[in-house]
Write a structure and sequence with these properties.
Helix content is 28%, strand content 39%. The longest helix is centred in the last third of the chain and has 14 residues, at 51-64. The chain contains three helices and four strands; from the N terminus they run ββββααα. Strands 1-2-3-4 form a four-stranded antiparallel sheet. It is α+β, with helices and mostly antiparallel strands.
């Protein structure tokens, strides 16, 4: 999966489109020092995103914005909760 495009939205938010789901716009919000998936809007799904897809999207966005280290060190990740 790759980021097709991304842009800043309102305060502390990012909109992103991914090549696996080109008809859908995913909205990420900033919490602390990293971004997490908040919602999605858009077209028809050829397949529904699964938890693994969401995690990969979050990693890609955080890597693009330079916050991947904070994302990987978040509390829920350290406790082993996904």
């Amino acid at each position: 999966m790759k980021i097709v495009q991304w842009a800043y939205a309102r305060k502390y938010q990012i909109k992103a489109v991914f090549d696996d789901f080109p008809e859908t716009v995913f909205l990420f919000r900033r919490i602390g020092e990293y971004y997490f998936l908040f919602s999605c809007t858009g077209g028809e799904f050829t397949r529904l995103p699964e938890r693994e897809d969401y995690c990969q999207m979050e990693e890609l966005v955080n890597e693009e914005l330079g916050t991947l280290e904070h994302y990987l060190n978040r509390r829920s990740n350290r406790q082993g909760v996904s």
